[in-house]
């Protein structure tokens, strides 16, 4: 009976959402949710399954609204669009890096997104 060989695992940097240290999976999710990403059956399934916005126009409008806020990173933009928090307090509790934004400024942005979501056609 032989003993199993232990393999040396490469050290992986620890993920920390508060510091925006994200794993490779999160970058892939961000890429497939991008409107300019190439279409494949799998990516279409992911978009349809997780989409909060049912039209390309409403998704584009939300993306543009979020891009107007210069303090937001790509990750924060994707998380706000995907999770659709209603209040600044909720947003900061699920996306800790948003503490850098003033509550009033963040709330105006979230209200704009909720309005777009409510009136999408």
Topology, pairings included?
Blueprint: H1 24-32, H2 41-50, H3 56-67, H4 74-83, H5 88-94, H6 103-118
Structure, described:
By secondary structure, this protein is mostly helical. It has one domain: Growth Hormone, Chain: A (Up-down Bundle). The protein is built from 6 helices and no strands. The protein is extended. The model has no long low-confidence stretch (mean pLDDT 77).
Any descriptors?
6 helices; Growth Hormone, Chain: A; 0% strand; 121 residues; mainly alpha
TL;DR of this structure?
The protein is an all-alpha fold.
Using the alpha-carbon principal axes, give the shape.
Answer: extended
- How many domains in all? 1
CATH superfamily: RNA Polymerase II, Rpb4 subunit
Distance between the termini: 67 Å
Name the structural class: mainly alpha
Number of helices: 6
The gyration radius over C-alpha positions equals: 18 Å
Q: Outline the low-pLDDT stretches.
A: none
Sheet-strand content, in percent, reads under 5%
Q: Could you say what the CATH topology is called?
A: Growth Hormone, Chain: A
How would you characterize the largest beta sheet?
Answer: none
Average pLDDT value? 77
Number of strands: 0
Instruction: Name the CATH architecture.
Output: Up-down Bundle
So what's the CATH class?
A: Mainly Alpha
Query: What proportion of the residues is helical, as a percent range?
Result: 40-55%
H/E element order = HHHHHH
